[in-house]
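re: the backbone from monday

yeah here it is again, tokenized this time
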């Protein structure tokens, strides 16, 4: 496909998305109906579409309309390319620009320039203060691809060499001693021997830093209460030998966990929903709670536009409930670790402050907010310790 034909395909997909079709579904359907497109074409079209969803407001302002066509005209202008060179109408290129589409772009509001829904600007400001604009700008870019080196099996330099032998170039990242950032060959990772053999896993660098911050000791009894696909379960297992339990309210989310654990050479006991108490009393319970995901909107840009005030309030209620129910599973003297991939204060520090105010006998030992300016996704982690003498 020519570069212009790829843009025409991205326009169709963006129109489907704007009409309400989920992005992944639109991409799969398009792929099925356009089998002539090679893997390079599909990857390039996917990149166009994800960039446009991430930068929906600024591209629409630059392109003059919130349509697939307007977004792609805006994308070209943002990249310093005159859209006239691609919108030629020749072959499979999109039709030439109309007079309306060639006028000078209008001034943008702050929310448009930062690609942020207006209702969320105060939420970001209350959470990030003077860093708001810089963090929102960081969220406009593509997320880097990070790998976690399984230090139980191999050290970071040797993992980097094994990957390089397969054309995957990486560099160490300072967020965690397990982290490698892929700078070339990211699409080869899942077919590579180091990945197949469990020497490396795909995992965001801040997510790795969260696991590195957990106060774990050898042979601890640990429950990953919101385990999902088990990214953090496996990262904990790679740190040191543990008795590990994984639980999730939706067991389908843990479907891939047994195979991933086998590949990594670790044992994890899966618990049915509501049976978290079978792991108690725990030395550490990790609560990687459901959240707005605002820290990972580079990776999942659709979520930025679908979050509503009602959904955010619901998530906060669920987080508070999980904190209350799962804290009971920690032994006296043990730890509760609370994590989100959100940048919002009310899902993070405020949620912990409210827990400490209503539940006596806990002390905060550590808290840190990572933002995309640190390189990885936005993440929050707080570590609370249960007092040995339980009061109230
Ligand atoms: C952020 S994801 C977990 C990601 C996972 N820990 C990882 O690192 O790959 C949050 C998970 O919490 C689960 N969840 C939602 N409500 C829950 C609840 N009340 N109790 C336990 N898990 C819950 C969701 O099904 C989802 O899998």
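seq for it, each position gets an aa:
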């Amino acid at each position: 496909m020519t570069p212009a034909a790829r843009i025409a395909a991205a326009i169709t997909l963006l129109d489907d998305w704007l009409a309400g079709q989920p992005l992944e579904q639109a991409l799969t359907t398009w792929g099925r109906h356009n089998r002539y497109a090679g893997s390079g074409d599909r990857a390039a079209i996917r990149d166009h579409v994800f960039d446009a969803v991430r930068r929906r407001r600024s591209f629409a302002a630059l392109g003059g309309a919130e349509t697939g066509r307007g977004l792609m005209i805006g994308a070209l202008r943002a990249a310093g390319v005159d859209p006239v060179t691609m919108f030629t109408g020749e072959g499979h290129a999109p039709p030439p620009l109309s007079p309306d589409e060639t006028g000078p772009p209008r001034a943008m509001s702050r929310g448009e320039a930062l690609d942020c829904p207006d209702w969320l600007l105060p939420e970001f400001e209350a959470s990030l203060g003077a860093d708001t604009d810089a963090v929102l700008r960081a969220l406009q870019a593509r997320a880097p691809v990070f790998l976690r080196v399984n230090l139980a099996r191999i050290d970071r330099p040797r993992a980097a060499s094994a990957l390089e032998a397969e054309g995957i170039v990486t560099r160490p990242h300072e967020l965690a001693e397990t982290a490698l950032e892929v700078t070339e060959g990211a699409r080869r990772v899942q077919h590579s021997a180091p990945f197949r053999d469990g020497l490396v896993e795909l995992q965001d660098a801040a997510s790795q830093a969260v696991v590195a911050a957990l106060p774990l000791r050898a042979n601890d009894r640990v429950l990953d209460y919101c385990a999902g696909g088990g990214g953090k379960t496996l990262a904990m297992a790679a740190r040191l030998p543990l008795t590990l339990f994984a639980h999730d309210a939706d067991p389908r989310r843990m479907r891939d966990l047994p195979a991933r654990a086998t590949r990594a050479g670790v044992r994890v006991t899966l618990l049915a929903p509501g049976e978290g108490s079978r792991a108690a009393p725990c030395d550490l319970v990790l609560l990687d709670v459901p959240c707005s995901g605002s820290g990972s909107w580079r990776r999942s840009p659709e979520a930025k536009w679908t979050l509503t005030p009602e959904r955010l309030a619901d998530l906060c209620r669920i987080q508070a409930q999980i904190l209350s129910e799962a804290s009971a599973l920690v032994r006296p003297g043990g730890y509760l670790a609370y994590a989100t991939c959100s940048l919002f204060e009310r899902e993070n520090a405020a949620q912990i402050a409210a827990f400490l105010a209503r539940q006596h006998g806990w002390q905060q030992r550590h808290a840190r907010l990572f933002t995309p300016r640190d390189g990885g996704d936005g993440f929050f982690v707080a570590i609370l310790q249960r007092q040995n003498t339980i009061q109230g």
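Residues 225-232, 248-250, 253, 288, 290, 318, 322 surround S-adenosylmethionine (CB under 6 Å). The radius of gyration is 23 Å.
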